[in-house]
């Protein structure tokens, strides 16, 4: 830590790059006090309908982002946070970042995103693929099938299935749908590492994304630590050298990646050369902020999605986990990750699609949000009174089924069912989904001793009480509304040498409120009954396809892909006809992309209903 800054005045900045916005927080290094913050909403948000460059439609399940939106966070949110905190740039001892993951992009060896090269701006595959890009499920299925067939030891570290959200599935999709761009991509890099490259001018790779999203398991995979050339070639001969695009020395979490470059100093208003910590993931970095680093302390970071992150001194193969990675959260422990791809997203879907006009008016008149109104109405009823069970798979299932071709379900609808009934059933479904994950840990010999929540959803007290009742456990709450950014500031403080390690920095700067919600025995008993019903539906639609269950969700998705592909082809033909008839007619923005995906026949054929 620089000696010229009095210890009480030293601050670190943490920047949390989320799904829709980036948030910078100025944090006092001595005690973690948050002095000021600012948010910058991404101009393009999630690009999931049409490409910004030319308006071409994207196929279903795509989710892209625009790197300039991330740079704008540095340019706008950092100076605004400094101003809000009332501190000057020379008090800032270090900067740390965290990012959604696996959010990954093709880049040149100099770090230029391919989508920023004019010749590739109209190619969907040139853009960063956001974590919730779910269009590489076919590739993920093939990776899993091959790994299983070859008895690859690393597969069990990922719960027996890697997700279509991860680096390999997304890269294989790039190769197979746009081979020219794949060849042009000298780097396949997580946004978590790319932003650090932008900040420092130094290329680095962090151990967290490499392990969880990049299948880096050095004790199982000799050499680079990544799956070997023969495995990659068996997936697709053109994929044999994929490792060259990702293999780079890994840096430990809490380490210094480099000093702030002159260019980034000009963007942010900070002083050139201050330490920038190694990249990290929004979920994993939050454990430090919540003082949830000790073995068995599970942190659920609940927002658009939920990530469950827990350290353990034990290594076990937990079915359906996202990954177990040595040093993946803090050096010296095994870090486990599990998750639910849709949580807040599902509640948002309910508000978007099932809020009657009268409810919207009431919320408006009372000056409250739709979530608050639906929550208030939903909490008036006893457990089970809505007669519903929902499955929380609107965005697929990341753990424990690891299948993004699954979809949501609500059973028990009647003509009496109200919007708040549906909303409550969805809240409960996400709690049941978390219970499946906690049960999987415990059954595999990885005890869960503490359960803490962070993220944007703990503000919903009723939701938190449902979690306490369904899990039959006390729920602790992080003492910060910006856990990711606080966690990043904690890592920055370590990188600057203000603390010897992440544990001591977390103890001094992190915050937790213990036992905020306690389970109610009666409600917990009633929820056990609903959970049993949830498990039955879960296994029927998600697990037991080959043992009497139903594959209907896969078949519906395949039919949807076929229908949309046909619709896109019709639109192309109509557009071409119009252009031939009148050569001055411009191509409309409804002209579909060249990336229309073929429907997967495998999803339609040969699987019992
Ligand atoms: N009171 C509420 N109750 C339940 N869900 C909410 C409430 N307010 C917002 N949400 C949901 O929370 C999500 C945003 O969570 P947040 O943690 O702020 O964002 P992110 O995960 O992108 O960082 C949205 O999907 C929104 O639908
Ligand atoms: O999988 C992740 C981390 O491993 C994603 O970053 C996460 O699910 C997205 O986070 P959020 O819901 O907060 O936007």
| Estimated radius of gyration | 24 Å
What is the rounded distance between the termini? 63 Å
Overall helicity:
25-40%
Largest sheet: 7 strands, mixed
List low-confidence stretches.
585-609
Strand content: 15-25%
DSSP summary: helix tally: 20
Tell me, briefly, the overall form.
globular
CATH fourth-tier homologous superfamily of the domain at 11-286 and 487-492: ATPase, nucleotide binding domain
Number of strands: 19
| Name of the CATH class of the domain at 11-286 and 487-492 | Alpha Beta
Classify the oligomer.
Answer: single chain
**What's the arrangement of strands in the largest beta sheet?**
13-14-12-11-17-18-19
* Mean pLDDT over all positions: 93
Structure commentary:
It holds the Pfam family FGGY_C. This protein is an alpha+beta fold and 609 residues long. Among the domains are: 11-286 and 487-492, ATPase, nucleotide binding domain (Nucleotidyltransferase, domain 5, 2-Layer Sandwich), CATH 3.30.420.40; 552-604, no CATH class. Helix content is 38%, strand content 16%. The chain has 20 helices and 19 strands. The strands form 6 sheets. It has a 7-stranded mixed sheet. A 4-stranded mixed sheet has the order 3-2-1-4. Helix 16 (483-495) crosses helix 17. The chain is globular. The termini are far apart. Residues 585-609 have low confidence and may be disordered.
């Amino acid at each position: 830590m620089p000696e010229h800054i009095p210890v009480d005045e030293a601050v670190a900045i943490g920047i949390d790059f989320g799904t829709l916005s980036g948030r910078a927080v100025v944090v006092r290094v001595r005690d973690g006090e948050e002095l000021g913050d600012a948010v910058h909403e991404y101009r393009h948000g999630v690009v999931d309908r049409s490409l910004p460059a030319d308006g071409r439609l994207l196929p279903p399940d795509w989710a892209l982002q625009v790197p300039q939106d991330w740079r704008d966070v540095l340019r706008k949110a950092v100076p605004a946070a400094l101003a809000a905190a009332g501190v000057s740039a020379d008090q800032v001892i270090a900067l740390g970042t965290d990012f959604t993951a696996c959010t990954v992009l093709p880049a040149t060896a100099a770090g230029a995103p391919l989508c920023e090269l004019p010749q590739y701006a109209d190619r969907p595959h040139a853009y960063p693929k956001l974590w919730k890009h779910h269009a590489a499920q076919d590739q993920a299925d093939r990776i899993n099938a091959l790994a299983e067939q070859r008895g690859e030891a690393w597969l069990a570290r990922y719960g027996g299935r890697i997700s279509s959200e991860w680096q390999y599935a997304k890269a294989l999709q790039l190769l197979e749908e746009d081979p020219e761009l794949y060849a042009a991509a000298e780097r396949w890099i997580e946004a978590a590492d790319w932003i650090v490259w932008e900040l420092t001018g130094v290329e680095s790779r962090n151990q967290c994304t490499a392990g969880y999203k990049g299948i880096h398991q050095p004790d199982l995979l000799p050499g680079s630590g990544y799956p070997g050339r023969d495995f990659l070639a068996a997936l697709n001969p053109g994929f044999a050298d994929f490792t060259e695009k990702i293999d780079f020395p890994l840096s430990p979490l809490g380490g210094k990646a480099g000093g702030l470059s002159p260019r980034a100093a000009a963007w942010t208003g900070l002083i050139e050369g201050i330490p920038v910590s190694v990249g990290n993931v929004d979920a994993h970095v939050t454990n430090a902020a919540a003082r949830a680093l000790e073995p068995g302390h599970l942190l659920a970071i609940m927002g658009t999605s939920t990530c469950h992150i827990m350290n353990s001194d034990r290594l076990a193969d937990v079915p359906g986990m996202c990954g177990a990675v040595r040093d993946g959260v803090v050096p010296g422990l095994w870090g486990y990750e599990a998750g639910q791809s849709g949580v807040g997203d599902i509640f948002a879907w309910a508000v978007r699609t099932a809020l009657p006009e009268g409810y919207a008016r009431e919320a408006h008149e009372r000056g409250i949000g739709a979530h608050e109104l639906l929550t208030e109405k939903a909490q008036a009823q006893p457990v089970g009174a809505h007669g519903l069970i929902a499955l929380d798979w609107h965005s697929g299932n990341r753990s424990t089924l690891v299948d993004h071709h699954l979809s949501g379900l609500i059973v028990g609808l009647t003509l009496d069912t109200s919007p708040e009934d549906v909303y409550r059933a969805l809240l409960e479904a996400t709690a049941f989904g978390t219970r499946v994950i906690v049960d999987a840990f415990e059954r595999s010999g990885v005890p869960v001793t503490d359960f803490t929540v962070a993220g944007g959803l703990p503000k919903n007290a009723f939701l938190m009480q449902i979690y306490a009742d369904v899990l039959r456990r006390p729920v602790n709450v992080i003492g910060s509304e910006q856990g990711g950014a606080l966690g990043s500031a904690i890592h920055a403080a370590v990188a600057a040498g203000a603390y010897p390690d992440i544990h001591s920095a977390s103890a001094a700067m992190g915050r937790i409120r213990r036992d905020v919600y306690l389970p109610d025995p009666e409600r917990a008993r009633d929820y056990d009954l609903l959970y049993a019903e949830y498990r039955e539906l879960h296994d029927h639609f998600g697990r037991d396809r080959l043992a009497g269950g139903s594959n209907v969700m896969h078949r519906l998705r395949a039919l949807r892909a076929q229908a949309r592909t046909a619709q896109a082809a019709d639109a192309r033909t109509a557009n071409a006809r119009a252009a031939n008839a009148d050569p001055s007619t411009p191509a409309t923005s409804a002209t579909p992309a060249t990336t229309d995906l073929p429907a997967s026949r495998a999803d339609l054929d040969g699987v019992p209903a």
